[in-house]
Amino acid sequence: MPALRAERLQRDLELALRLADAADAQSLPRFDAADLEISTKADRSHVTDADLATERAIRGILEVERPEDGIFGEEYGAQGSTERQWIIDPIDGTANFLRGVPLWGTMIALAIDGVPQVGVVSMPALGRRWWASAGSGAWTATDAAPRQLQTSQVATLDDASVSFQSIGQWTEAGRRDALLALADRVWRDRAYGDVYAYMLLAEGHLDMVAEFDLKEYDIAAAVAIVREAGGRMTSFDGEETISARSTLATNGILHDDFLSLLHA
User: Fold this and answer.
1) What is the value of pTM for the model shown?
2) Where would a tag sit more exposed on the chain, N or C end, judged by fewer CB atoms within 10 A?
């Protein structure tokens, strides 16, 4: 049974990588385009014609190749099964995308019974891609060959480098004091933003990322990759879920220390 499961996940990962190819073909030509169409959603966030076209391209392939699976995407909502569910953020970092900042990417995950088992993140404006499936490690593409990822071995908060996303986000979550305590405690604090911060964590360049006001599609792919790289991702309160609307991602070694610091 484990061998059959691994074989199925490998096929799912291969499909996810093809979905990322299709996504890149939609999003990259629209990046920094003079005629980019931008509108505002009910929650006051932005959406572009590229977000919509990218998600449609992914859904179109899944509906043909995995008709029995469910889909949950940022732009077109949820449909079908939640037992095996593809979770899609067509362009994570839309604000960057529409301002011509290259730190945006497509996030594709397959969650089985709510747990991300496959994840792909593609950032075509950087020429980078990351992927993982449960039990097979996390990887990134390089010019020479795929390279396996490993989170850092940093073992003390004094030496930790962290990304906090934004001061406003922590303030709105009622966590501003915790953010200030974090900044005072660690070696280095920056706001790299969106999915890129999680990939820096998986590569071992950061030791913690925390974020609030999240949907499942904002983190599902990152969860699969960070965990397979040796890290840990929970809610801000330590729950093993992608539905808590917050996340604390660490190199694993420091996870409990960060939880203690942020809840002191």
Assistant:
1) 0.96
2) N
Distances (CA, A) of 253 to 27, 156, 191, 256: 36, 9, 21, 8
**Buried/exposed code over 44-75 (b: 16+ C-beta within 10 A; e: otherwise):** eeebbebbbbbbebbbebbeeebeebbbbbbb
Q: Which amino acid is at 215?
A: K
CATH topology of domain 2-142: Fructose-1,6-Bisphosphatase; Chain A, domain 1 (3.30.540)
Task: Select from 74, 40, 38 the least CA-distant residue to 56.
Answer: 74
Provide the strand spans (E) within the chain.
38-40, 46-48, 70-73, 77-79, 84-92, 105-112, 115-123, 128-133, 138-140, 147-148, 161-163, 188-190, 208-212, 232-234, 246-250
Q: What is the token pair recorded at 64? A: 């043909």
The C-alpha atoms of residue 158 and residue 179 are separated, in whole angstroms, by 15
Span 156-208, pLDDT tens digits:
999 999 999 999 999 999 999 999 999 999 999 999 989 999 999 999 999 99
Reported as type and span, the H/E element at residue 6 is: helix 2-27
Domain 157-262 fold: D-Maltodextrin-Binding Protein; domain 2 (3.40.190)
Q: 106 near 92, Cβ under 8 Å? A: yes
User: Smallest Cα–Cα separation from 233: which of 102, 148, 109?
Assistant: 109
